[in-house]
Write a structure and sequence with these properties.
This protein has 544 residues and is of the alpha/beta class. It has 20 helices and 6 strands. Strands 1-4-3-2-5-6 form a 6-stranded mixed beta sheet, sandwiched between helices. This is MFS transporter.
Length: 544
Amino acid sequence: MAMTQSRAAINAVVFASTVGFMGIGLVDPILVAIADGLNATPSEVSLLFTSYFLITAVMMLITDIAATRIGLKNTIMLGAFVVALFALGSGNSNTVGQLVGYRSGWGLGNALFVATALTLIVTLSQKKGKESVRLYEAALGVGIAIGPLVGALLGQGSWRYPFWGTALLMLIGFVSIAYFVPATPVQRQQRHSLAAPFQALKQPKLRLISLSAFFYNFVFFAILAYSPFVLQLGVLEIGAVFFGWGLALAITSTLITPRWQSRLHPVSIIIRCQWVLVVLMLIMGYFAAPAHFDKTPLVIAIIVSGALFGVVNTLFTELAIETHPTSTSIASAAYNFVRWLGGAIAPILITHIGEHYGSAYSFSLAAVFALIACAIISRAKLPKPQISHPLPPLRATVAAPRRPVMILMDGSPSDTLAVDYAHQFLQPQNHRLLLVTVNVVEGVEGEGVRETPVQEMGQLKHYLQKLSERGFDVMSEAISDVLPMQVAKTIIRRGEALDAQLLVMVKHSHASFIQRALSFSVTQEVTEQARCPVLVIPKGDQSS
């Protein structure tokens, strides 16, 4: 596929993904208007979320099965068409029951669409690098941010207009995908049973993470589904508040979270964010009560919660996928099924309690659920790095000091640069060498590391032989089961354990400006935090 055709296909999927994610927050500004227009109670209107996410949860179990049977393109087109069809039906509803039913169909289409979008973007870009993930996250962030704004602007005329507008935009996305995206093959060899996600939940780490996300969703939907009824604002004002909420969520999920991950354990970050959410829920409960009602702290709390949701959502998803030892798609299906079950129960429960007992009770209950989520996630023990020696050491006759020089290998041709440096500038009588490979658990590639165990044993043997002939005392070492966000810390800790006198790694110059600005580079983090000297060899722009 030509570069321009590939870019057009990716842009078509990204545009449609943005529209798909708009549907999450689209209805927030018009919830009160829907209740007034259809003579419905807040609890009845909250069923818009319950029906949507209940179907989404169930569909998460079979979306991967559908994709392997009819292909990625056909699956995402089917999802886009279903979203457009049921969004149109939502706008034509005359009763709250009809609207809830159409939102169920919308959830079905959205599950087919969203679950397939990232895989299709990766396939079209012909790589598994961070660029594909960033495009998907950008679509997610923009969609969540502008959904409430679109709902508010169109909803000023009628609550029906946002639904019709979404149907039109998704229809445009459907046509774009049909025209620009090439056919994708059916992947028959990857089929698995409907029971696979339930079997995956027997894995303790995945089960704990999924359950924690289940209870966390009660906080998420206390904001998303219930708080618009508490604010006592107009359509445009609610849209502005939730635009700020979505913008904060988008910024932290795509820009801030990677930076935090390089410094703190993901479980530690989630727990800290959950504690802040507990405080926010209690603050909202206090100021939502009639005796202390004040809109300003409620608005501030909603926007701040968006920033926290961006961090927690991202980390929960990454942990769920990365801690499961088998298929990423199965782990994702299992996690999303449990997670969105919480999304189906939370809106009706929180809204019902607020409607009958008062807002303070709703937000206080959300705080309790946040504490339960904290207690569960704190029990999740992540895999510990395992050290092995894939090849026997080649020892020189010259006695060498005990402190080694660690040379980080990534299995690519750029390894030659590091080996050549050692060959030319290090001295056998002064330097003992250790060639180290970091094998990452099913994650996004990082600089200087590989996603999968090194297969090029022949090349590694060549490097060992070359350095041994030069007179070096040289060994190789593989560190396995490392989470992507823990790569740099694993390298630093291993260097400290070995009392390394020097660490050598190759700097890949194709890291994006955003990556460099946010210290997302493994190379930069190791350079800044390692106790021993770090030598970074520029790779330049040559292809690898």
